Amino acid sequence: MTSPAYTEVATSQPEQTTDMKKVAVASVIGTTVEWYDLFLFATASALVFNKIFFPGFDPLVGTLLAFGTFASAYGARIVGAALFGHFGDRLGRKSMLLISLLTMGAATFGIGLLPDYESIGIWAPISLLTLRIIQGLALGGEWGGAVLMAVEHAPKHQRGLYGSWVQIGVPAGTMLANLVFLLIATTLTNEELLAWGWRVPFLASILLIVVGLYIRLNIHETPSFKAVEKTGAKVKVPLFEVFRKYWKQVLLGGVATMSTGTSYNLIVAFGLTYGTQTLGFSRGEMLSVVLVSCAACIFMLPLFGALSDRIGRKPIIVGGIIAEALVAFPMFWLMDTKELPLVFAGYLLLMTAFAANYGPIATFLAELFGTKVRYSGLSISYMLSGLLGSAATPIVTTALLSMTGKGSSVAWYMVGSAVVSLIALLLLTETFKKDLNAVAGKSPSAA
Known about the structure:
Elements (H helix, E strand, L loop, with lengths): L6 E4 L9 H28 L1 H4 L6 H33 L1 H20 L4 H4 L2 H29 L7 H9 L1 H19 L2 H8 L1 H18 L6 H9 L6 H8 L1 H32 L4 H29 L1 H24 L3 H27 L7 H17 L1 H13 L2 H20 L11 E4 L6
Antiparallel strand pairs: 1-2
Helix pairs in contact: 1-3, 1-4, 1-6, 1-7, 1-8, 1-10, 1-13, 3-4, 3-6, 3-17, 3-18, 4-6, 4-10, 6-7, 6-17, 7-14, 7-16, 8-14, 13-14, 13-16, 13-17, 13-18, 13-19, 14-15, 14-16, 15-16, 15-19, 18-19
């Protein structure tokens, strides 16, 4: 007898033969490379791109244009999520991760070779924008695939922990990007930095790409995707299935994750500009603050991820979102003292709140979707959050500071973002007891 069009085809829990340490390392290395490339652009936007590619504008306007180019990739990330998600749900997670890493590497290396505005005029910022969009396409496919490689391989009682390892790529990549710029900023003159020094971090990314590719070539496809292949439950167009059955999860998941992008970009993008251009700190001092905060975050993320395996994803994420709202004003109060130790304290407060929110969120989003469309659903939802939070934050906050001259206006923006995310999260159900190896979809006989 033919099964109904949509059934739950349960698959037995596969034996944990996969070396989870290898999967975790592959996830961390790969996402670190991708986020290094992404945040390298953010750091350069705050420090040099306004002078290299937009030299004819007022410094604040030039920074705003540089951040606009930075934000342009977020629309491309959604397109990349749909594209890579489609093939990731059809062909597997591993192959898409390899392609996304190569694409990101080529775009980042290309940025390091770009002529400046004085050499080719308007074609310089146009070329920068083009390569930035290619970066966005690559990242749109990278993050979701990396999450699934970790979460779908992990034992059920440790999915939050291993999902949080993927998240380490964000502070680790930021650390690398800022460390390289810190070294350059302290060893080169400003003229040397603007003439050629800024190119070095972009060109050096090729070394990380080689390491990432080597590690990813030596991991296996996930058990959950193998179960889809075995049952013949693949969907011809996963994107259609996602918006037909999971549109609420996509929208609410994206909005619920929005505040992570807002809070993190306050730290690594706006905070850097605010500290140097408004408060008068040196580039080296502000980059040091970012480095210490990111180092602390690397240790906190797996702690909050593991805690979500014990008490659930939502309680930890809710706590993180509320903390983001509560520490927004204290962070700026501490920064406005212009005392470097207090700036460190403000950064660490917001970074702790961010880690509680961000650590479990990857696993939570993955658990919202059925196996056969999980790559597409997870990726689109997360990239939507980036468009709502990360993309808008540098532009809105820079504009707010320009209009008001006060950090408190930016704090209100953080509070508003947290409130909206909290409401969306509360409308979603808890997921940490879900069986990820259940294949929701057409039965083999109906395929």
